[in-house]
């Protein structure tokens, strides 16, 4: 095995076989293995090894599930090469990113030959839902038919049809269990939605994959695209959908130069139409079939953590190929911490984290994971109260804050005057302009060959005559980048003050946005990046300045994929949360939730705890309204595997007004109640 420059050191035999697989242009390779077995590490070493062997970094396509994951992978490769005579300047691996971002770039660069306008604007899910809603209103499907699916559901159905390549009736029947009378109306609606996107020169997230996949059906384009890269490597392959697999197969029909890695036990994006079949069917998709390498040694977690995680996934309906082992002896069993309610859980977690920090563990080495973004609310309040800085991933994005969307709508409308979602938003910021007036203005812009000119000639709406000239000036005056965002911010300032009570903190966000914008060469690139991978919300927005750069990570389990921390706390390990659905989920959905818990548990290196609040606040269940439920420990930790955990009962120490424990019998003996629940 040739090791140019020692890039295979630090790998075990199987990892090394994967990293050095085949000579130049080798046959397809699949690395399928459990959590923490070094798949991502092996992938990084493989790229370093290829580069050290003379591969051209501009001809390597490296894809992962988030921009952050892709950047981390790239950094790892650069670190491996640093100091060798094959070191590359940062950015040499220029084709690294998410499927969607790579798709956007390819489509833009090749817009001419694909019949697209290169200035297309990308809509995020929220914009798409808004546009779907406009289309719905346009067809009169909302007001007359009360039971017609809500805008979010319409988009979900549409998205599933596109990503899974499944015909509408099938999606309606097996996924949404809705009766078919809506089929024709939905078809009309989706037709109108597509027409609206095209009229407005908009692509949505799904289009980035769909258009790429469709382009690949053209033989000459596919041949050209396939020839751009000698190696295509993909991490987390278990969470790709049919369109992504189609793109891949068309890029490298014989599989030469193709490497995919993943873990079928960690497939957690079925709800977004990802299919684990992609990874399972990969080996036999080629002739000769792909080389398959399985890794079974876990380097991440201590024995007791791995044993508990294995026990959880061992209960799955499906049998996964491998059971992991580790030689990381020592460490304690994961804790199952029973608490009174969410508030106690928040206090307990904050206390634990502080104690761990005092014992020498940095905040950065600790993470708190949860099923749904809103579940961290109580904890965020508690952390803010105790001045514990944190960064939250996968939560409410900075980008979806109303004032940020307002400002972006200005930029987007200026960039693309036919974008109606942005148009409605921006125009209605002006007092005196309502939906009717906005629609008339947008109709005029849409019909005009030169929208900027048309706007200048338009008569000012009577009730907004005073504010009209400033708006026209902003939309039409020549402006460089990033001056444009400065001008937009100045224009927006009085509206911000009028619209929001907390205008000060919102103004700070917009200044922050302008600073981010200044790092981009032009408006189009800025908007594309922001839409595809918006910055994360931090506690700076929650009022805690990030003084030092040690901060705690809060993350949804979905966004924590692929990462690891020394200490992990999982919130709300109760039924109704994991699994999230109170009994209505299909079996496939419940199984996906089990894998989600497995993903959460396998993020921990040294210490793991799961919270079981007995009183669990349920808000998202419309059926029950907003109320408390007495929760049960998640069904994924049944009695039969309870011995893998250490059980802890935690009650908040009494405050100054409460009797100290023991001085007086508590009216409700919750400790006992908690114990009894497991008896
Ligand atoms: P996941 O399924 O969660 O994405 P993974 O299989 O990609 O996990 P990695 O993140 O690559 O696993 O590796 C897990 C941890 O184990 C990392 O800290 C990595 O550095 C370490 N590791 C992997 N292989 C080895 C090895 N051969 N020697 C030492 N440490 C290793
Ligand atoms: Mg990984």
Automatic annotation (TrEMBL):
<keyword id="KW-0067">ATP-binding</keyword>
<comment type="similarity">
    <text>Belongs to the helicase family. UvrD subfamily.</text>
</comment>
<feature type="domain" description="UvrD-like helicase ATP-binding">
    <location>
        <begin position="12"/>
        <end position="302"/>
    </location>
</feature>
<feature type="domain" description="UvrD-like helicase C-terminal">
    <location>
        <begin position="303"/>
        <end position="562"/>
    </location>
</feature>
<protein>
    <recommendedName>
        <fullName>DNA 3'-5' helicase</fullName>
        <ecNumber>5.6.2.4</ecNumber>
    </recommendedName>
</protein>
<dbReference type="GO" id="GO:0004386">
    <property type="term" value="F:helicase activity"/>
</dbReference>
<dbReference type="InterPro" id="IPR014017">
    <property type="entry name" value="DNA_helicase_UvrD-like_C"/>
</dbReference>
<keyword id="KW-0378">Hydrolase</keyword>
<dbReference type="Pfam" id="PF00580">
    <property type="entry name" value="UvrD-helicase"/>
</dbReference>
<dbReference type="Pfam" id="PF13361">
    <property type="entry name" value="UvrD_C"/>
</dbReference>
<feature type="binding site">
    <location>
        <begin position="33"/>
        <end position="40"/>
    </location>
    <ligand>
        <name>ATP</name>
    </ligand>
</feature>
<keyword id="KW-0413">Isomerase</keyword>
<keyword id="KW-0347">Helicase</keyword>
<dbReference type="InterPro" id="IPR014016">
    <property type="entry name" value="UvrD-like_ATP-bd"/>
</dbReference>
<dbReference type="InterPro" id="IPR000212">
    <property type="entry name" value="DNA_helicase_UvrD/REP"/>
</dbReference>
<dbReference type="InterPro" id="IPR027417">
    <property type="entry name" value="P-loop_NTPase"/>
</dbReference>
<keyword id="KW-0547">Nucleotide-binding</keyword>
<dbReference type="InterPro" id="IPR013986">
    <property type="entry name" value="DExx_box_DNA_helicase_dom_sf"/>
</dbReference>
